Amino acid sequence: MELQQLPRKLLIIGGGYIGLEFASIYASFGSHVTLLERNETLLRSQDRDIAEAVKTALEKRGVEFLMGASAQKIYDQDDGAIVEILDNENDSKQLMADAILVAVGRAPNTLGLGLENAGIQVDARGFIVVDDFLRTSAANVWALGDVNGGPQFTYISLDDFRIVRDQLDGNTDEPHSTKARLNVPYSIFMHPTLSRIGLSEESALQAGYEIQVVKMPAAAVPRAQQLHETEGLLKAIVDQKTGSILGCSLFCADSSEVINVVQMAMQTGASYETLCDSIYTHPSMTEPLNDLFSQVRLGTVLPA
């Protein structure tokens, strides 16, 4: 993030959220970006149609994906680096890059803190073990933020603060806990942004729900046309029996804002009809919620 010179060729090792965000950033700057992903599929936690839409959008921006490939060795050179990889056919190849971004995940920074001396338990990966109230195994010691192994988002750390604050304030009637985190939205800040909340189509079916799945292209949204950001896909999963919103994926402009509207509906137990029949400002990226959820009334049912 502090590079003074734009790498002509950037190799990113890892196709997770961070890898994709920086692939989008540097492709926009003009770098030729090659992304190495050891799995054969991208964004395995997302539905395949959403993941494919993301991959296609980034490929249009010039990002090259090497799926099923893994880095074996990196050789530093004066003018860049050579990366030895195994491709998806287990053949060894060499790639040259001006810069390499390693984005293969995070590890907790707990090694060497001497937590065992304080009686604080950690799990096999080094994350501090906490209960629903973020209490560690040591009395009067709490663990907040990424180090406790929860979702690694800034806003989760803020909610961690609320949980500990209630205990320090003596709020014993209805103390806040992690059990209240029923519907946590998140965004991957690519171009366009991918935002998601709740269940995917696959996970909803695995959970035994009878579902209705509705989709619409971002190009059908008037505001997206105005912004000249027409790539993307909007998708929602609704419980066929109750009308409850089970999940929503928005791969479109301003989705990091719109997903919060969906979150409020889910958190308050509102049915899809609330979003379908609400009046939104025009033109905005929120108003496609009318069109997206109105499709539920058409009765398109996917087999459970």
Beta-strand residue fraction: 15-25%
The rounded distance between the terminal residues' Cα atoms is 45 Å
Average pLDDT over all residues: 94
Order of helices and strands: EHEHEEEEEHEEHEHEEHHH
CATH topology name of the largest domain: Enolase-like, domain 1
Domain unit count: 3
CATH class of the largest domain, named Alpha Beta
Class by SSE composition: alpha/beta
Instruction: Give unreliable regions as ranges.
Output: none
How many DSSP-defined strands? 12
**Architecture of the largest domain, CATH level 2?**
2-Layer Sandwich
Biggest β-sheet description:
5 strands, antiparallel
Strands ordered across the widest β-sheet: 8-9-12-11-10
SS element count, helices: 8
CATH superfamily of the largest domain: FAD/NAD-linked reductase, C-terminal dimerisation domain
Mind telling me the C-alpha Rg? Answer: 22 Å
Helix content: 25-40%
General shape: globular
Structure notes:
- The mean pLDDT is 94.
- The protein is α/β, with parallel strands linked by helices and 304 residues long.
- The N and C termini lie far apart (45 Å).
- The chain has 3 domains: 9-102, FAD/NAD(P)-binding domain, CATH 3.50.50.60; 115-180, no CATH class; 186-298, FAD/NAD-linked reductase, C-terminal dimerisation domain (Enolase-like, domain 1, 2-Layer Sandwich).
- A 5-stranded antiparallel β-sheet has the order 8-9-12-11-10, sandwiched between helices. The protein has a 4-stranded parallel β-sheet with strand order 3-2-1-7, covered by helices on one side.
- Helix content is 26%, strand content 23%.
